[in-house]
Fold HAD-like domain-containing protein.
Amino acid sequence: MSSSLTPQRPGMHARQISSSSFAEEFNAARSKLGDLTFDDSDTELGSGSDSAGGSPSLSSSDTEGACCSPALSDNTPPSPVSPITTPLTPITDPDVADNFAFAFDIDGVLIRGGRPIPEAIEAMKVLNGENEFGIKVPYIFLTNGGGKFEKERCEDLSQQLEIEVSPGQFICGHTPMREFADRYGTVLVVGGEGETCRAVAEGYGFRDVITPGDILKANAATAPFRKLTESERSASRDLLARGGRLSDIVVEAVFVFADSRDWASDLQIMLDIAQSRGGRLETRSATFTEGPPIYFSHNDVLWSSAHEHARLGMGALRKMVETVFEDTSGGRRLRTHAFGKPQVSTFEFATRLLQQWRAAQHGLAESEPPATVYFVGDTPESDIRGTNAMNDKSRHTEWYSLLVKTGVYQAGTEPKYKPRKLVDTVLDAVNHGIRREMAKLGSCKKTGGRLLPLDDAAMKAIAEGRTPNFVTKAGPFSDP
Ligand SMILES: [Mg+2]
C-alpha cells in the first residue's frame, strides 16, 4: 500500500489509457501463456459508436493518449489460464472429433434460474458420444457470470448437467482478472455474495483486497442509507486497525468481479474512488482526472434468469458509474474497462483453453487447432457479436455462431448481431454442428468411414458454407 500523495503511476491516468493499447498489452501478456494460433494484435471489435448493449469502452473510439495500460506494463509472467488437473496423455481417443469443438455460454443456454434447460442434459449426452455418428466432441464453457471459485461453479454445473465439468474447460467473467494480481497493491473488489469475491481475488494472488463493506465499516457515513448487518460487520475487515486513517489507503485499481448486491452503496464508493486523488480514500481530485482504473468482468446489460423477462446485469451498473461520474464531475468522461464477451481477447483466451483441454482430455495435438468452433449463446450483443468478431480475426479456425431462443434473445425479433444459425435450443445447436461437420466430412464413423450419399446439390451447399440435405437415423436434416 502506497502512502504517497501522488498518483501511483504518474502520467498514466485511467482516462488517458487508450483502449486499444490496453487490449494490445493484455494480449501481449496473455500470449506468454503459449503460442496463440491467431493474428491477434488488436482485440477491439471495431471503432466507432456502440449504441445498444455493446462494450462502450474497449470497443469505443477511446484514442486519447497512447500510453500503455498500467495493468500490463512489466514482464511479470501471468498465471495459467485455468488449472488443468488431468495429466496429458499421448493416447488419442479414437472416437473423438479432432476437427471441431463446441463452446457454450451458460445462462440462458444451459441453465436458467439455477435449473438446467431441459434440452441441455440431452445436448451434453450427444456431445459425449450418444449421437448417430458415435463420436465425442470436445467442449468448453465460457460465461460472463461469476462470483464463485471456478472449481465451485464447475461442481454446480456438473450436478445440473449430469456430467463432470472440470475447471480446465471453464472460463467465467473474472477468470482473466487473475493476470492482474501482480500488477496492483491495494485493490477494491466489488460484487458477489458476502466475502466470496474477496476470497476469489486472494486465490488469484491479489495481495491486499478491500471491499465496500470494509469502507462502510470504517466510515458508516460513506453511504448514509446502508447499514451493515451484524454478520457483514464481523466479516468485513477493520481498515483502521492498520494504524492510520482511511485517507492513508490508496486503491490502485477497482475490480467488479460479480454483480453488485447493493447498487447504491457500491455506486457511491466506486464514484468516490474514481473522483479521488490517485485512488486515495476520502479525498477528492480538483480535476477529476486522477482516479485509478476500473475493470468490470463483463458488460452484459441484461441476463437471463428465472424471471420471465431479462434482468439488469453488470453492464447496467457500468453505465451508471460512467454516467453519474460525468454528471458530477463537470462533464468529464470516465472510461472504464470490461472483460468477458464480446471482447475478442476473451475468445482468444477461450481458444487457448480449448486447445489445452483437447490435449489433456482427448490426447489431441495442442498445436493443431480445430477447424471449426461452434459457439452457442443466447445474447446477440455479447455471444454472437464476439463469436462473429473472433471469426473475422481468426486465421485458422472458423468460429460459427449459434443463437438459441431460450434466454435473452426473444424469438421473432431481429437480433442486432446476426448468428450463422438461429435454433430453438442448445440441443438443436449441437445437432446442427455435428451434422454440418459430418456432412463436410462425408463419412460416418459408425460405418467405417462410409461416404454419405451426397448429391451435386449437397456438394454445392458445402462449397457455399451451408449444410446440405441428407438423411440420418435422426431424420432428414437441411439448412436452407
Ligand atoms: Mg447467456
